[in-house]
Amino acid sequence: xxxxxxxxxxxxxxxxxxxxxxxxxxxxxxxxxxxxxxxxxxxxxxxxxxxxxxxxxxxxxxxxxxxxxxxxxxxxxxxxxxxxxxxxxxxxxxxxxxxxxxxxxxxxxxxxxxxxxxxxxxxxxxxxxxxxxxxxxxxxxxxxxxxxxxxxxxxxxxxxxxxxxxxxxxxxxxxxxxxxxxxxxxxxxxxxxxxxxxxxxxxxxxxxxxxxxxxxxxxxxxxxxxxxxxxxxxxxxxxxxxxxxxxxxxxxxxxxxxxxxxxxxxxxxxxxxxxxxxxxxxxxxxxxxxxxxxxxxxxxxxxxxxxxxxxxxxxxxxxxxxxxxxxxxxxxxxxxxxx
Length: 339
Known about the structure:
Elements (H helix, E strand, L loop, with lengths): L1 E3 L10 H6 L3 E3 L2 H7 L2 E3 L17 E4 L7 H9 L3 E4 L14 H18 L21 E5 L3 H12 L3 E6 L2 H11 L3 E5 L2 H8 L4 E4 L14 H6 L5 E4 L20 E4 L2 E4 L9 H22 L1 H7 L1 H4 L2 E4 L2 E2 L2 H7 L6 H5 L1
Parallel strand pairs: 1-2, 3-4, 4-5, 6-7, 6-9, 7-8, 9-10, 10-12
Antiparallel strand pairs: 5-13, 11-12, 13-14
């Protein structure tokens, strides 16, 4: 196993700890790319890393290809075997490798939103929990899945007035079971979205369509109807976002303003809590990494249907239908590629 030197420092892990675990240190990321048969990352490859792509190379990471047309085509052109954490899917629909980062991002979304609401950051100066004699902050969460549920947990804990919108009755039933009267649930349709978003202090985008681009639920016109100083945090930004006005930002410059509304749209929110995120993620990713290393991608896919769904590109073919549809590419079923 090759590890780039100092790669773990941001998560509180030293080179010595990697060596003690049996790893070999590489002097640079470039050396890892050149020498390794499988690259294991956290986020999708950067444009500067495309030059390292080669036929048969396995890349195992979060890819979010439905929002990355250039990366998708480059992976296909170079015949890379690309395995996406976020589309490995169990028979019951669960996404085991997306789950821990969704938990982190959902909880962080409320923290980031609460901070962005502070007046000196451009927000309207509303405290989510309020104090006696003042109104509580109004938090609207679009989507009641793992991100939405964890966002609701933190928002309720901070004392906010919380509304969660979803299209699944069973999701709303579950949320009301666990939160009781602490939240309100509404069916996600244009009328309900407009009613609650225009009054919200904080809107959290938490919509997920597995492997596909997120649907736009809030358009530019509706953003313009929000009160000045309100805040949007779109956790779905790495899948294109569910709010029309979002674009990816960075931890160094996390926010921007449109029509007086503060937008916080960092694709890798869990990176801000790197120690927690590293252990939460590797707890789930290592199982499949070991399977790839021991068996190769083809045999691992044959043995595990959940893992097979994670293969988005294989030897020049796009093997994940939602990605092919997003970019107008030919979809090739994985079984026909693997023979």
